[in-house]
Amino acid sequence: ICSNNPEMLKPYRQKSEHSIAIVCHRGANSLAPENTLEAARLCINQGFQFVEIDVRTSADGEVVVMHDATLDRTTNGSGPINTWSASGIAALDAGSWFSDRAKGVRVPTLSQILELACGRIGVYVEIKQASPDVVLDIVTAHKMLPHCFFWSPDRDALRWLRRQSSEIVLMAPRWMYESVKEAVTDYNAQIIEFDATKDDLSEVSLCKSFYVRSMIFSLSHE
């Protein structure tokens, strides 16, 4: 289950058999600024299984964690991320927009998120605008590949990742395909995401026949 409000799923505890993993969309983003170390740390402290992050590339090639293509919404900077240096992005305030007490929170790099997550929580990496080879190198260097899964709106990036290894865990959204089978076979995804507002959730059971996992994505407060 990928939730925008993971804290509402407490006090859920995993069972050894048929356990459900909770994916915290952009971290615990109703309690801390999204896509920050603070939002990820809350997910770890609450015992969730995955934190979802979005990655983009700075002008000088650093992979940073941010959802939007521009800095305007979640920092005191402005303009496209790919026109700013990594040091310039690191100096921005990424918390004041969220609350006064979050003032001074910074935009993390992918490496910083992985360092925090290692041995504590899995990471769902959405590659918004970054070279898949660079992302893969960073994840591998932090020994986090067995604890990550990936998606990107760029299907060529996902196909490239699949060519590197059958062990890399990839996700495919059901709504982008004509059938569950097509979603599975495009790049041999191991996870199929069902959007609770777009997809027929009765198809979740079909995932078992393809030996893949299902993930229900919901922004609902219910």
What radius of gyration results from the CA coordinates? 17 Å
How is the main sheet built? 9 strands, mixed
Q: Could you name the ranges where pLDDT drops below 50 across 5 or more consecutive residues?
A: none
CA distance, first residue to last residue: 13 Å
Look at the structure and give the mean pLDDT: 96
Strand content: 15-25%
User: In one word, what is the shape?
Assistant: globular
Number of strands: 9
Task: Supply the helix-strand structural class.
Answer: alpha/beta
Give the fraction of residues assigned to helices: 10-25%
The number of helical runs is 7
Order of helices and strands: EEHEEHHEHEHEHEHE
List keywords for this structure.
222 residues, alpha/beta, 9-stranded mixed β-sheet
Mind explaining what this structure looks like?
The protein has 222 residues and is an alpha/beta fold. Helices cover 23% and strands 18% of the residues. Strands 1, 2, 3, 4, 5, 6, 7, 8 and 9 form a 9-stranded mixed beta sheet that branches. Strand 7, helix 6 and strand 8 form a beta-alpha-beta unit. Helix 1 runs parallel beside helix 3. The chain starts with a strand and ends with a strand.
Write the layout of secondary structure elements.
Elements (H helix, E strand, L loop, with lengths): L1 E2 L19 E2 L12 H9 L4 E8 L5 E3 L20 H5 L19 H8 L4 E8 L2 H10 L6 E4 L3 H10 L6 E3 L6 H6 L5 E5 L10 H4 L3 E6 L4
Parallel strand pairs: 1-2, 1-9, 2-3, 3-5, 5-6, 7-8, 8-9
Antiparallel strand pairs: 3-4
Helix pairs in contact: 1-3
